[in-house]
Design brief:
With 348 residues, this protein is α+β, with helices and mostly antiparallel strands. Helix content is 38%, strand content 17%. A hairpin with a 6-residue loop joins β6 and β7.
Length: 348
Amino acid sequence: MSVLRIPADYDDAFSHMLGFGLASILEDAAEDRICRLWWSGRHTLMVETNDEITEMECAHIVRAHAERWNKSQWLNARGSYAGKGKTVATLSPRIGTVAGREEWVALERDRRDAIDSLQTTLDERYIGALGEPSYWSLNRTKATPEIQQKFGASLWEMTPRNRGNEFVTMRLLKLASIVTARTAEKVHSGLFGLTNVDELAGTEDSHTPTGLKVPSRTDNARAWCALLGFSNCSVYRSVHYETSPTAGFIRHDSGGGPRWHVVLPLTEKPWTLAKYRSIMRSYALAYVGENALHLDQDSLADSTATLYAELCRRLQDQGLQYCMLFQRHGTQAKSPEYWLLRGQLIRL
């Protein structure tokens, strides 16, 4: 058994995803490996494996994972679906408007071929968690129903779309290439907080965190792991005209329109990834996160407060004492950029 200590902040959603992603990559590299995660204080994330592994071996595994994905058929699959000759990544969940029936058929065919080439459980879980352009979300209130493609994408995918960027090409593929080009020593240095090298940003302002925290220079090995983290956050197709529900995200409706928060479990006891996944997609955690903001205002109805207390007890029975609530901030723009702010600790 080995324990890896990762410098991180418990009120930073990026740090949580970093832990989930690193543990997912480690488990995927060995069939019998099981990882458990927990927080030791505010600034240290612990990752325990049931076998012996050093920090440098961990770095080799992360680099090898990025290299495999960089060469993979699915990450490099591209097609033209907008009717303009421009190609985009087939597996990106948010792309430009699909031109028509013929292009939708081509997209579905290409997606099927790419998915058939996936190699491991993590590959399959990740592509499933990304979501896909929605052909089923129709606004039927208009004379000509309009498709809202973005309603099929995971809410964790927050790549700025103001320049036509899409997630697989501008984040995953670039980061996979960058991490592959590093030595294992440089991957280790970045992963364990000894250096902070952001090759993806270069000299420009960094958007490397891709919404998981405020735009800031971020080591690319840590970013690779963090973006793999939301493989643990399922997305569900909604039959209604709405954004597909995504594990971890909760919606608050207000006079100014919907606001989004993220709620994540925070535990000081070792949990497996399977347990994290089950709690993050649970009704109990979503309900607690949705109503925790109103507790100090005494604005919960008696029935809501009663159910809130009951669900808190259920989560406590699972060994959970705290959760973190993160507000999603959006810029005021036609194509807004989103990121998660520092979190608020909720005691159950």
